[in-house]
Design a protein that fits this description.
mainly beta; Immunoglobulin-like; 8-stranded mixed sheet; 13% helix
Amino acid sequence: MFALLGAVAATGTATAQSDRPTVVVVGNETTVNETTTVRVVLTSAPNGLSGYYLDLHVETAGVARIESASYPEQFGLTSAPRITDGTTVTLEAADMEGAIGSGATNVTLATVTLVGVSRGNATLTVDPRQFDDDGGAFTPATQSGTVVVTDGASETRSDGGGTDGTTAGTDRSGTAGGGETTGASAPLSPILTLVAVGLAVAVGLRRRK
């Protein structure tokens, strides 16, 4: 276990941060009783990404419901997504192999599946409870997203968002809006606690050499 955790400390080197990393919810559309997926994306990782711990919320009750969530394969250590009342999903994962190096952009953190419940626009917000890069903890900005639920008629999808106008990945349709927020402090997640221990051990071994 410590050998894997040590690999996290060796990933990439620190670089100057030019644009603030932002966690973006990439919106989508669906119809009532049908499913759709949204991606949770980190726009940039100037110093890599060791792991993260976040909550995704459906702010518009009764329009869409969270069904499930999954992680990309690049995260070698994950916790099972915890869904509460179909309105919140808690996600945490760690990059054990150093796949997300310094300077990475548009990093998909998770894919969340939702089902349309009734016609309307469901606003999805994210609470970044803890993020760690290869140099320590950092707090990303956030940008909300929108899932448009229709009764079968075609409607234009729109993505919510922050004030910096950033978009993520190849899903660039929609408009940005809303406000930029920052995550509040929270207790260390179990996975990121392990990562922190691994980093401390790696640093200690280097100092002894």
